[in-house]
Amino acid sequence: MPKPSNQIRLTNVSLVRLKKGKKRFEIACYKNKVLEYRSGIETDLDNVLQIPNVFLSVSKGQTAPTQDLAKAFGPKTSLDDMIQEILKKGEMQVGEKERHAQAERIHNEVVDIVAGKVVDPKSKRVYTAGMIEKALELLSSQGAQHKQEEHGKGGGTATPTADGEEAKGKKKDMPTWTGVVTTKSAKSQALEAMKALIAWQPIPVSRARMRLRVTCPTNILKQATKAGPKKAAQQDNEDADEEKATGTVKDKILSYVEQVQTQDTLGQEWEVVGFVEPGAFKGLGEFVGGETKGRGRVEVLDMAVVHEGD
């Protein structure tokens, strides 16, 4: 029996589905490209979409009527904008085996990222991926238990302290980790995992920083700088003070430094020594080199240090 001509084979398709305005819309994407698009690795929609259209049902080849799209997304919304909203906010529809493999892949990425960014506060040594994985598993079970307590009792319970009520409130506000999901990038989930590890301390852990010395001619410091890419620490930290990232060359350099140790002006040269998140090192070096035309320097004083404030 011949197959219907309007049926699309789903052998290599990832569906992304979004319910909006009482209708369910679907788009057909290439496998593995949706997460790349969401994390910013892939920006070309042509490389993400198998068919540049919005459907009510991809498997039936049923495209969404124009009036349905206009009612749900707004009459002035372009097709590209509709597709981008579905891509960013929609839910990926994948098979059980593929979902498991995808979750495992993201889990491994998260563990690797975290293992490269945290250390033992006393020894300053990095942890193996296996140790980080066990610590996150412990947090995951604790996080699930904490959520049950919140739903069952109307709030979390805390370890007994002299200030019991205050501790109870603090515990409720602390970041939790319940395992990876397939709807977020590994990088953003690694940040959540690190916050939970540092907050709960299932193993002694602190975020690793590099200690650097940055020098720059004083006559360049007050020059205005073009707003470039934010440093890695700012991209990772939702609470970062983004105001520092714009303004003068000095403002921009200081925006990379999480904690300043010393800051001096010696003759015609300004110097700052402080702690920088490892992921920000490359961007800082490129900025100083480009903005000072090679007259500024970034020197590594210590590759992996821990300072108070975690």
From TrEMBL:
One GO BP annotation here? cytosolic ribosome assembly
| Domain Ribosome maturation protein SDO1/SBDS C-terminal stretches | 227-303
Indicate the segments forming the Ribosome maturation protein SDO1/SBDS central domain, all copies. Answer: 108-208
> Record's Gene3D superfamilies?
3.30.70.240, Ribosome maturation protein SBDS, N-terminal domain (3.30.1250.10), SBDS protein C-terminal domain, subdomain 1 (1.10.10.900)
Q: Where is the Ribosome maturation protein SDO1/SBDS N-terminal domain?
A: 12-99
Feature: compositional bias, Basic and acidic residues: 165-174
Q: Per the record, what is one GO cellular component?
A: nucleus
How does the annotation summarize its subunit structure? Associates with the 60S ribosomal subunit.
Q: Which NCBIfam families match?
A: RNA_SBDS
Write out the similarity annotation: Belongs to the SDO1/SBDS family.
Q: What is this protein called?
A: Uncharacterized protein
Lineage of the organism: Eukaryota, Fungi, Dikarya, Ascomycota, Pezizomycotina
